[in-house]
Amino acid sequence: MGAKLGQAIGGRTRGGDDLVEAHEINVTPFIDVMLVLLIIFMVAAPLATVDLGVDLPASAVEPQPRPDKPVFVTVKPDLSVAVGEDVIARDTLTSTLDSATNGKKDERIYLRADKAVSYGDLMEVMNLLRNAGYLKIALVGLDGRS
């Protein structure tokens, strides 16, 4: 009985050096931390998404000075594309811009579109310009200052 009492209190028997190993891990703090993290992510996840309707205003800043011969690319309401005053096919946009800019890919291209043109169609034209190597694109709008 004394050996069992020694194991229960001190973990050692009087006669030997054997230690009693505890094979139990207290997982309660781990579960508490996991539940707190779960609540944080459940609250923060809806805040991370952006579902806002945007009504963009007109620009009210001073217009930048225009270059001597700006290159305008226009997207018309019927989705045809014009460089300057000439309506062109979309597949000839690269060669037409190369001749209009004398091959200078770093020249600014002024892109304007009718209000009826959807955002997706405008982005298609911007992607054509970017794929052609023209990375300096300025969007043209009306002066909204009163």
Account of the protein in words:
By secondary structure, the protein is an alpha/beta fold. Helices cover about 35% and strands about 15% of the residues. The protein is built from four helices and five strands. It has helices spanning about 1-10, 30-50, 95-100, 120-130; strands spanning about 70-75, 80-85, 85-90, 110-115, 135-140. About 5% of the residues are buried.
Strand order of the largest sheet: 3-2-1-4-5
Q: Gap between N and C termini, in Å?
A: 99 Å
Shape: elongated
Helix content: 25-40%
How many DSSP H or I helices? 4
The counted number of beta strands is 5
Structural class by helix and strand composition: alpha/beta
Largest sheet report: 5 strands, mixed
Unreliable stretches (pLDDT < 50, length at least 5) are: none
Summarize the helix and strand pattern as letters: HHEEEHEHE
Topology:
Layout: H1 2-9, H2 28-48, E1 71-75, E2 81-83, E3 86-88, H3 93-100, E4 109-113, H4 119-131, E5 137-139
Parallel strand pairs: 1-4, 4-5
Antiparallel strand pairs: 1-2, 2-3
